[in-house]
Amino acid sequence: MKALVIDDSRTMRRIVTGILTPLGFEVTEAADGQQALDAMNAGLEVDLACVDWNMPVLDGLSFVTAVRRERKWRDVTLMMVTTESEQAQIVRALAAGAHEYLIKPFTPDAIRDKLQLLGLVELEESA
Amino acid sequence: MSFEIDVQAFEGTDPVYDIASEVFAAMIDGEPGFVRPWEGAPPAPVDELFAWVDVTGPMNGRVLLSTETTTAVEVTRALLGLAPDEPVVHADIVDALGEVANVVGGNVKSLGPDHSVLTLPEVTKERPTTEGGLLHTLSLDWRGRLLVLSLWMLP
Fold first, then answer.
1. Which keywords does this Swiss-Prot/TrEMBL entry list (chain A) (predicted)?
2. A60 CB burial (10 A radius; 0-12, 13-18, 19+)
3. Which domains does chain B have, with CATH numbers?
4. Contacts with B120 from chain A: Cβ below 8 Å
C-alpha cells in the first residue's frame, strides 16, 4: 500500500510516517496540497492520503475537492488529520469526499483504528 | 469580537490545562502524567522561544506557547522519538514547537464559537506583540521544565 502524508509541519509528517511505515505503507510526504497534487499528476500512485487542513498554498479541503473531481483518483482513500474539530468543518470535509477524519492530537492506535475501519490494515486479533 | 472563552465556566477544571495534558500525553510522552501545573512561582526563563497561532473570526485571540530553547529541544526529541544523543537542528525545533502550538491552538479554538479560523503557526525568539491583553495564563511543569501557555486577546 502506498500512502501520501500531506502536512506543512515536517514534524507531523515524520510522526505520521513513523506510524504508517510499520503498518506496511510505503510513504511519500508532501508539504501542502499543491505539492501533493503535483506529485500525483506526475504519476505517484496513492492508496491512502493523510491530509492536514490548514496548509499554505493549497489547503486540505481544496486538495480533497481536487482529488474527488478526478475519475483517475477515485480509488484514493482520503483521511483528514487535522486540528479542525468544529462539527461543521468535519461535515464539509466528509461532504467533499474525505472518508475519515482524525483530530489532532492523536495516538498511533487512533490512526491504526481508522485504517482498520477503512479496511487498509487488518484487524488485530483479540488476545 | 474578542477572545470569548470563559475558562472559569468549566466547573473547576481548566480546559486549557486539559488540552495541554492531552496533547502531551498523545503526541509527546505517549502516556499521561508528565504535565502538571507548575508549583510555586515559576523561574524567570532565559533564551526563550515563542510559538503561537491566532484565532480569527467570531473570536480574535492568540494562543502562545513559550519555553526555554533547551526545553524546546527536549520537546522536539520527544515528538520525533530521537535518542538523547541525536542532534536536533534548529529547523526541527521551530517546526516541532510550532506544531505543538498549532495543535493546542486548534483545540482551544474549539472551546469558542464556530466559524473561527486558525492561522499557521509562527515561532520566534522575540516575544510577539500581545497588545490586546492577557486572558489566561498557565505555567506547566513538563518533566521538571517550564512551559507557559497563555491566551491573549487581539486588538
1. Phosphoprotein
2. buried
3. 7-36+47-153 (3.40.1550.10)
4. 8, 54-56
Residue A127 lies in a domain: no
Tens of pLDDT along chain B (155 residues) come to 555 555 555 455 789 999 999 999 999 999 999 999 999 999 999 999 999 999 998 888 999 999 999 999 999 999 999 998 899 999 999 999 999 999 999 999 998 888 899 999 999 999 998 888 999 999 999 999 999 999 999 87
Nearest CA in chain A to B119: A54
Residue recorded with cell 482524525? A102
- DSSP states of B43-81 as a string? PPP-SEEEEEEEEESSSBEEEEEEEEHHHHHHHHHHHHT
Q: Does B77 touch chain A (CB under 8 A)?
A: no
Contact (CB<8Å) B26/A106: yes
Asked if A106's CB is within 8 angstroms of B110's CB, the reply is: no
pTM, two decimals, is 0.93
Count: domains in chain A: 1
Whether the complex's predicted ipTM is more than 0.90 is answered with yes
What's A27's domain CATH number? 3.40.50.2300
Structural domain contains residue A36: yes
